[in-house]
Structure formats: C-alpha cells, structure tokens
Write a structure and sequence with these properties.
Blueprint: H1 2-8, E1 14-16, H2 30-34, E2 39-40, E3 43-46, E4 52-54, E5 59-67, E6 74-83, E7 86-95, E8 106-107, E9 112-115, E10 129-135, H3 136-140, E11 148-149, H4 157-160
Antiparallel strand pairs: 1-3, 2-11, 3-10, 4-9, 5-6, 5-8, 6-7, 7-10
Length: 170
Amino acid sequence: MVFDELETSFHQWGIGRYLEERKTLLRDYPNIIEEQRYYHLGLDIIVPYDTSMFSPLDAEVYKTGKEATLGNYGGYIILQHDVNGVVFYSFYGHLKTPQMVSVGEKIKAGQKLAHIGQESDSGGWFCHVHVQILTQAAIDDGYLDWGYISPALLPEVETYFPSPYFLFKY
C-alpha cells in the first residue's frame, strides 16, 4: 500500500518523521501501547527492497544483529561516531541480513554498509530503514533498542535520542 501511494504520487521515496505520534499504527503491539511508547525516535526512510545504504559519517561498527521477533528491527547496524570529540551512535534498522560490515570495522563516510531488507529481514515491516541517533547516556541507561518513547520521557528526548535530521542533506 505504501509503495502504491508513492507510485501514484510520482515519488521515489517516503519519510516517517522523528517524534511522530504513532499510537494508531502501533495498536497491534500491546507492549508498546501498555508502556505508552508511541513517539517515534528516528526517521523512517521508505525505499524499495535491496536499496543500498551508505554511511553518512566516518564511524566504527559498534554492533550488528538481527531481531527475529515480529514488529522489531530485524537486521540492524549501530555505528559509533566521534565528531570533534563528541561521541554518539547512529542506528539503522530493518536491513537485509547477513550484514556487510563487522563489529570493530572502520567505516568511511559514503561507504556502502547495508541494503534495505524486506519483511523477512525487517521484523515484518514494509521496506524502509529506521535511522536514529543515540547518545552514550542512552547506551548506558539501556535504551539501545528503543525506537519509541513515552510522553513521560519526552522532556529527556535530547539527552538520549537527539534528532537525526542533521545526517541528511536535501
């Protein structure tokens, strides 16, 4: 349905916004609704299956994996960045597996690191990549795999999950 809408509108890609409220979309995931975590912490870039992904910045691969549970990330890669002494992490979910990169590998800006997964690679979701920024505080406090936040934690969102928009050039 999403790709039919893109085709009808003559767009090649779509976007799901940072901090978008998604209570209706997540109604089939009772754990998220129960925890009231329905504000989206990343950007969803909607593109066709197998589209190449490139690193936006120099990085080191911090973690890779695959969550097999329906509704989760499926294949994912987490990159660690150090920009002018500020360390942060970028998270990429719903990726084709196995991964093209390994933990500890140094990645250059513009280097291909993954391909967009399909439903079997992406926790059952349609083809897209979830891009999110995490701080060291988010890692330390156990929020590594959170893609949504509750209204109660919204005042802390910049402490843990700053906006990912700076990674994109329009």
